[in-house]
Design a protein that fits this description.
The protein is mainly α. The protein has helices spanning 2-13, 18-44, 49-63, 66-75, 78-102, 106-118, 123-134, 137-168, 173-192, 214-238, 248-270, 273-279, 282-302, 306-332, 338-359. Helix 4 (66-75) packs antiparallel against helix 15 (338-359), helix 8 (137-168) crosses helix 12 (273-279) and helix 10 runs antiparallel to helix 11 (248-270). The longest helix is centred in the middle third of the chain and has 32 residues, at 137-168. The protein is globular.
Length: 360
């Protein structure tokens, strides 16, 4: 059984350019996990925490512009988009660091944080688009679940690296590492995606892009609702055992879910194609995820200690659920709109996450 599971990953790694793509994805996916905390660490070393978080929020607003960058990726060859974005991102990031050091006014810092986030090269979007283009139906699910596993690893390791490096050396060190990661990820991604840049779509393109299609709109709505529920649950679990402050028990529960998400993605990606396709249907995996979250709520009401056990199935369903959403996004995308569609799905997830944190 283990040999059969590993055969799916061996087949994926034999696909042209996938090894380089995975290296670029791993490098690029560490950056999102590190960036916000590194930025906050730098800002809070020069400003009071309230003003620092206000400036750092510009980064979150900038991230919502991902669909615009996705549209550029669909219209132009990847090098013509990624190199200018990288140059602009590094420039704005350098100005932001210099502005913090020189004590420039708060609105200027907010604008620089916004612009730095707006110009981040969308490595994750290109990864998913290229993996879907390079793989057939048999290996595609393995490719997409591998992408979600790398994302989970980035968000598990990134915050630890950001805080550890920032405290061990200097507050600016985390942002310097983020810039270096982007400088490595972009050429690796261009090398891995060589020949896979989407053709330029016809001039008579609808201004709404993927939003004009009912199927895509439903997928984006499902993505937002899904992450709303996940982040509301995680925010509530963070105060596990207390109710009014973040606790060690809450951190342990969230760690179990994160580890389960990685394991779930690896397991589903290694299943035979017929079983993985059946499990990866959005109705199946999202219904299973909803059932796991309901079980978690029930067990927490019975005995708080049982909540740890219920975190395992929640985590196992999380990674495959994300992969199913991105796969459905790609299936619904019209030709020439693959990158923008994946960008809208990512933005819908971020919007749902923000609302879920507020509700939780």
């Amino acid at each position: 059984m283990i040999a059969a599971a590993t055969s799916r990953y061996r087949e994926l790694l034999r696909t042209r350019g996938v090894r380089t793509l995975i290296m670029a994805a791993l490098t690029g996916k560490l950056q999102p996990g590190m960036y916000n905390l590194s930025l906050l660490l730098l800002l809070s070393s020069h400003l009071d925490y309230g003003r620092a978080t206000l400036v750092a929020s510009g980064s979150a607003w900038g991230a919502m512009t991902t669909p615009l960058r996705g549209r550029l990726l669909d219209r132009y060859p990847y090098p013509r988009v990624l190199w200018p974005l990288l140059a602009a991102h590094l420039g704005f990031l350098g100005l932001l660091v210099a502005g913090v050091d020189r004590g420039v006014p708060l609105p200027a810092l907010f604008a620089l944080a916004l612009l730095a986030a707006t110009t981040v090269p969308p490595i994750g979007i290109i990864t998913r688009v290229t993996l879907r283009a390079r793989t057939s139906g048999d290996v595609r699910i393995t490719a997409l679940t591998s992408d979600t596993v790398l994302t989970d690893v980035g968000f598990m390791v990134g915050p630890v690296l950001a805080i550890g490096i920032g405290h061990a050396t200097a507050p600016v060190a985390g942002l310097a590492i983020c810039a270096l990661l982007m400088m490595i990820a972009v050429p690796l991604m261009l090398r891995g995606a060589r020949g896979g840049s989407a053709p330029r779509p016809p001039a008579a393109r609808h201004w709404a892009g993927p939003l004009r299609q009912a199927t895509s709109r439903w997928v984006f709505l499902v993505a937002a609702c899904f992450f709303f529920g996940v982040h509301a649950m995680e925010t509530a679990l963070a105060s596990y055992g207390s109710g009014d402050e973040v606790t060690l028990a809450g951190g342990a529960a969230l760690s179990i879910i994160a580890a389960g998400s990685v394991l779930g993605g690896i397991v589903v990606g290694g299943l035979p194609p017929t079983r993985s396709r059946r499990l990866m249907r959005p109705t199946v995996v999202l219904s299973t995820m909803a059932g796991a979250m309901f079980l978690l709520a029930m067990l927490l009401a019975v005995d708080p200690l049982l909540g740890y056990l219920a975190c395992v199935p929640v985590g196992l369903c999380l990674g495959p659920s994300l992969a199913a959403i991105f796969n459905a996004t790609g299936d619904a995308a019209a030709p020439g709109e693959e990158a923008e569609s994946q960008s809208w799905a990512a933005s819908a997830l971020m919007a749902g996450a923000a609302l879920g944190v507020a509700a939780g």
